[in-house]
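Page 47, continued from p. 46.
Same chain as before, 443 aa.
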Amino acid sequence: MYSCGPTVYHFSHIGNMRSFVAADVLRRVLEYNGYQVDHVKNITDVGHLRNEVADTGVDRVEEAARGEGKTVDEVVAFYTDAYLQDEARLNVLPPRARPRASQFIAQMIQMIEKLIEQGHAYEADGNVYFSVRTFPSYGELSGNRQDDLIAGQRVEVELDKRDPADFALWKKGDPSRLMNWDSPWGRGFPGWHIECSVMASDLLGPQIDIHTGGIDNLFPHHEDERAQSEAVSGERFVGFWVHGAHLLIADERMAKSLGNTITVAQLAERGIDPLAFRYFLLQAHYRTTLSLTNDSLAAAQTGLSRLIDDVAQLLQEPESGDEGKGDEVRLAFLEAINDDLSMPSALALVQDLVAGSLSPVTKLHLVEQFDRVLGLDLLTRARGSVELTEEEQQLIFRRETARRARDWRLSDQLRDELAERGVEVRDGSAGQRWIKRAARSGA
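Result:
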């Protein structure tokens, strides 16, 4: 499984992160089904130009380096680290390999040379282009007709292309660039699309089972990637392409140029649990366009908190020893996740499970299994919300003693003292149950 990773010239926004969470869910579902997943996710640190379709404009990473007064390596290191922190906050599993494009220049040159030898590419004044006319199925992945693509290229077309739809494999560099490499065609740098073809084939082989990315990667990036990979190998490149839909902000697409982006770190600064954002994403199918509002995000935070509270209550119930039951729920969950990753249905099943009639021990066993797919840390969070300090345990014990003695005044006093420490106590037929919250301020 290969996933297109971030271009590290800026913080990844939550729209970017939706596609990475979708890929993570897919991997978790495959592993839940017993597959061994060899996952590679790249880091783009060169060659991603401002105009992705026309192969023109400035390199995004170089632009960031100049704008911030840093070296390219400093920019790449900083934004890569920020991205990895966001992945960790969202419980995205790390891949087996995370290659940087700039580390595979030699392999890119070799693939380009093969494409030229096979007649699929041509050199023009230091640039090398892929000839789409030599690949008859070009456009099939994205649903574009080749003639329409060629006719539709009206602006910023490089004059040395034989056809306007041809795309760059190698670009001629100039002395003003910060990143140039020697090649048979002179000093220059790779095109964005050749990078993923090389990293995927070098680390996973010429044929891979699954390739993921956001829907914005479909064209031109994945269309071009498929064309050059299959042209050079003569084999089908990818078994299944999986694209996640856009995440909108109040029905508007996020873009750094529009200034309406939000990062995972910014969510956390606003008091939003990053896993509440993951919970929010799980409430919609990955191929459905999703719009984020303050209300929907707050509702997701409340929903996750309630689910964790419910699991915490289960941890305080007596064990009944019937772990073998729950097969019907287990089968329903498997059917949901295997139905094109129907995570809304899977999440609803978990919510129904914790409120249902199965025994606490069975519920906890199933929650632990199902959370391998959800990635919400339900049991870990729940355990953390019921673990008490020694002093808190003593207060709970004293309050239980007071309740048995029907000393309601002392019981209420101890409840308030526990609340000031952030322990919310609930009374029921089975005795005291509690949830740890933030301690009251000003107490």
